[in-house]
Amino acid sequence: xxxxxQIPNSCIIAQDSYFKDDSVVPVDGRGFKQYDMLDALHxxxxxxxxxxxxxxxxAFLKQCGLIPEQTAASEEEEVFxxxxxxxxxxxxxxxxxxxxxxxxxxxPYEVCKKRRSSRVYRxxxxxxxxxxxxxxxxxxxxxxxxxxxSRIVFLDGLKPKEELLxxxxxxxxxxxxxxxxxx
Length: 183
Known about the structure:
Strand content: 5-15%
Shape: globular
Oligomer: single chain
Radius of gyration: 18 Å
């Protein structure tokens, strides 16, 4: 079960859905496509979608063909939760300034390389891409993220998925409660 499935009236905006066409993704001096940069993404379109959700989450869900899951009648039905996920969301200042809660999953180099090698990418990663581009860009983007955002909850990506999900769900529900009390 996903975070989205556990939180009523939630919606996911995934940064991977905003990649520019492969033909316009910049290439570095070694011939590696620069997918791990904000320039490879339509961040303006992503921000427009986030803004549409913020203006009217219910209308946004319907426009996307999503019907909010109805739960037992409660005050919490009035709360809509937007889950924004992606590898560079914290590096885009206008976006990360909107978050009530921020989570970053950490995994060590060896695990990341193994997981990446088991995935299928279109286009496929060229030889040496992980060590020559992906990992160095991760380190660069992480340093930038850490200098821009101070309230990130770091999650140990080696822990079982169920344990991580339970911790984030608990935290999100506490944040919902806090926001409702503030209103």
